[in-house]
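We store sequence with structure; for instance:
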Amino acid sequence: MKKTLLISLISLTTLSAHADEGMWMLTDLKAQNAATMYEMGLDIGIDQVYCPDNISLKDAVVHFGGGCTGEVISAEGLVLTNHHCGYSYIQQHSSVEHDYLTDGFWAMNRNEELPTPGLKFRFIERIVDVTDVINAKIQAGEVDETTAMTRPYLNKVASELYEQSDLKGKKGIDIQLLPFYAGNKYYMFYIKTYSDVRMVAAPPSSVGKFGGETDNWMWPRHTGDFSMFRIYADQNGEPAEYNENNIPLKTPKYLPISIKGLNEGDYAMIMGFPGSTNRYLTQSEIKQRMDATNAPRITIRGARQEVLKAEMYASDQIRIQYASKYASSSNYWKNSIGMNKAIIDNKVLETKAEQEARFAKFAQEKNNADYAKVVSQIDEMIEKSNPILYQFTCYSEITRGIEYSTPDMLLDSLKNAIQQKNKAGISKFSKLLKKQYASIHNKDYDHEVDRKVAKVLLPLYAEMVEAENLPAFYATINGQFKGDYNAYVDHLYDNTIFANETNLNKFLKKPTVKAIDADLMKQFVEAKYALRTKLINAVTESRKGIDLLHKTYVRGLCEMYSPEPKAPDANFTIRLTYGTVKPYDPKDGVHYKYYTTLKGVMEKEDPTNPEFVVPAKLKELYEAKDFGRYAMANGEMRAC
C-alpha cells in the first residue's frame, strides 16, 4: 500500500480518512498503535514519527497561536497553517487601504514579511508521563484526588518538576501539566515558545474562505484553506521578541511538500493540536450538551451574526473590523448545529445507551460496586445541573456578544479618591480611565454596530430565561424605561460616561460621585458580573464530585475494553490519528469522493453571494486548464 504522510491541521480532518479511531498520545504510539499503523501502510519507523531522544516528525509540528496547528515546511522556519487559523492575524494587518482579507497577501522577499504581534508558535520539546508522581502525592495524603486534577495544584507540581529538570533556565521554555483519561493519567509538556512571527502569504478570501459558513464543517468543500507565516529567532536560534536583526529559525526538521496527490486506500496520518473532545460522556451528558449548551448557543449566536452580516455587507470598514469576530463566532455556531445533527443522525444516544448497558453487566461480573453505581450517579448530577447550565450558557453567549462595557472597578477607585479628596488618586484614575476608553473603543470596535447587536440580544435573553434569573439591570429596563429595550440601549450607548469621548472628557473635567452612581452602564456591568458569580457558583455546586465520578467511569470503560487501547480525550495537546483514505457514503444514494476539484468551485460560483465569488484569474486558469505541474494525471486540478 502506498504510504502518504498527511501531517496536517487536525481541524481539517474529513470523513474521507477512515482512521483507527482516536487522537493518540505520541508517547504511547509504540505500545498502542505501531503494529496497526504498519499493517495499514506506514513504511517509516515509529521512532521517525515520535522519538523522545531524537528529532522526529513531531519537531515539524507547531501549536499555532492559541488553538491551531502549523507545519514547518522549510529549513528556515516557514510554517503552513489554515487560512481560518491565520484569519485573525490577516485581519489584524488589514485596512480599507490594504485589504489583505479580500486581496490576499504575498511577501516577495523577507523584508516584506509582516511582523505579527501577539502571535506565538510553540514546539513540544519533551513529553513526560508523571502519573506516578501525582499518584504518590495522593497516596501520601499530600493532596486528594479531586484537587490533584485542578490547574493550581498541577501548576505547582509542574513548577517543582521544572526546577529539577535539565531544561530549567533554558530560553523560551514553558511548562504544562494536565490530566488525561479523566485523571487516571498525567503528562507534563515542556514547550519552547517563539514570539517573533511574521506573515508571509495568504490567498484572497475568495480562495481561502471560499464557501464561507455555508461549507464550514461540511463535505464536500472547495476552499484553499491555507496561510503561511515564518518563525524568527535571535542570532543563536533562540526565542526572542521582535527585532529587525532576528533571523529565520533554522529548523532541525521540516516537511517537504509533495504534489503527487492521494489515492484511495493510501495510508494517511494527521498530527496536530486538536481542541477538546468528550468521547467518554454518558448518554445524559451528551443530551445536556445538545440542550443546555449547543441549542442556546445556536440561537444567540445566530441572532448576533445576522446583525453583523448585514453591517459587514454594507461597509468595507465594518467588514474588516468584524471579520475575525464573525468568523470566530460562526465557527462554533456551525459546529454546534452540526454536532446536534450528527448526534441524531449517527444515533449516538442509542450507542451510548448500549455502552452503558454493557458497562452495567461488566460491573456486575466484576462485582465492583463503584462501577455499578457510577452512571446513575452521573445521571443524577446532570439532571440537577441542566437548568443552571442552560442559564449559564445563555448568560455567557449574551454578555460575550455585547462588547460595550465600562470599567466599574476603576470607576469605584476614582469614586473613593473623590470621597477622600485625594487629588493624586483622582489624577491617576482619570488617566487610567482614558486608557481604558481607548481599549474599549479600539480599531476593531464600532459603537453603532454594537448598539444594534444589544437591541437584538437583550430582548432575546428575556425570551429565553425566566425573569427571576435575569441580571438586575432588567429591573431598570422594565421600570425606568417601561420595557422599551431600544430606549434603554440608546441611553447606554449615548448618555453613559464611556459612550463617547465627549461624555468621558466632560465627566473627567469635573468627576463626581453622583455621576458615577447614576451611570447606567456601570450598573449594567455590575449586574452582569454579580450574576456571573452567582451562576458560576451554582454550576460548580451542582457538579461537585463529578470529576471523581468521571475518573471512575473512564477507568472502568478502559478496563471493559481491554486489551483494546482507547485514546484520551483531546485537550489542545499534540496528538496523532491515522487511517486510510476512503470515499464516504453518508446515506442511501449519496456518495462522496475523498477529494474535490476546481470544477466544483466553478459549479458553486454565485456572484451575488460573497461566500461563493470566484476570482476572475482563477476562472481564466480553469478555462485554459492552465494547472501547470499541479494537475493530476487525469488533468483534474484538485481543490481539497
About this structure: The longest strand covers residues 185-194.
